[in-house]
Amino acid sequence: MQLLLKNIRICSGQKIAGPQDIRISDGIIQAIGKNLPMEPGVQEISFPGQAYASAGWMDVGVHTGDPGYEHREDLRTTTQAAAAGGFTAIACAPNTLPVVDSKGSVVYIQNKTAGLPVSVFPIGAISIGAKGADLAELYDMHAAGAIAFSDGRMPVQDAGLLLRALQYVQAFQGLIMHQPHHNSIAAGGQMHEGLISTQLGMRGMAALAEEVAVQRDLSLLEYAGGRLHLHLVSTKKGVEMVRAAKAAGLPVTASVAVANLCFTDEALVDFDSNWKVKPPLRDETHRQALLEGLADGTIDFICSNHTPWDQEMKNVEFPFAEFGMIGLETAFALCRTFLEKELPLEQLVQRWAVGPRTVLGLPVPEIKPGAPAELTLFDPEQAWTFAEKDIRSKSVNTPFVGQKFKGKVLGILNKGQLEVRE
User: How many domains does the chain have?
Assistant: First the structure.
């Protein structure tokens, strides 16, 4: 495939270069410059408005549903949703049926996604079946290509098990990812515990449920060594503890869900179950602390927290609805619409493209002649309205249908394949 991208502003995460052309041949960038000449057999691609290109974005912790829950999402629709959201790579959570807890499960995902335009990296489970009892085959999964280890939305409650996991993966420099959440403290909680939950008469999840888990995990890391990523931190004290741990030299990193950056628990006043997520949307004090942590580098990257559910799991009374919303297609637009001042474009690209790969030990795509073309194309100013037809996921559990957005993904280019968003 021979392409000539016309009048593209290149955003490196540090600066933005003026409009240039990018010539790509067989998936490799051949030339970058102004007014590059057309050549026979080359397809010219131009976009209205202001088109930007950056290194391809990556999302971590994506729930796919495949194998076992393909009625919610399969690997094909997951990557279609990812491409629509500007992601050239995803790391998928292990919470499938069966759980990704063996070499065979890792190989299954790799084989099924090999030809797709989005690169898919499996995250292996820490424990067998993600049940939190016995260590899974961590080394075998690592040898097969698992990028990290996590029990996903089933946080490990057994401190001894997490300790052993941190110790075990040091033999091959593995990464333990853990969503800090203490189940018994938060038992029965439906939303953030605070003024809004009291007004609504809903049982809350105290910030303490996360903070106790963060403190425990950091203590285990300090004792055992290894590498730890705290996935989807959502509380002020959680951010403060990660900041202090980094200052003390502990090898810890952290991520945050885009919804927790943009919204507070006030979004739940109408009992729309699409806003029921985990970690829960918290109050403004916590949201501001997350933004501060993102700005100063305490939080390393942003996640969509894409969690597809079928209608039977979400279109029910609030207390009976499952936690989670889809998020791949709307993540960039949410940041541009609600966080334009707090998250400048260069920093946004850094948090989507560079941060995840740095934590996972993956090379960051470069935009230069001779480099593989792994690009996200976007217009940071374009106004548009998100409609159900824009959803590429099999599931539609999102509160954003009808939402007016600023900032739209135009497409991705990866593995020699161009995917343009309509």
Answer: 2
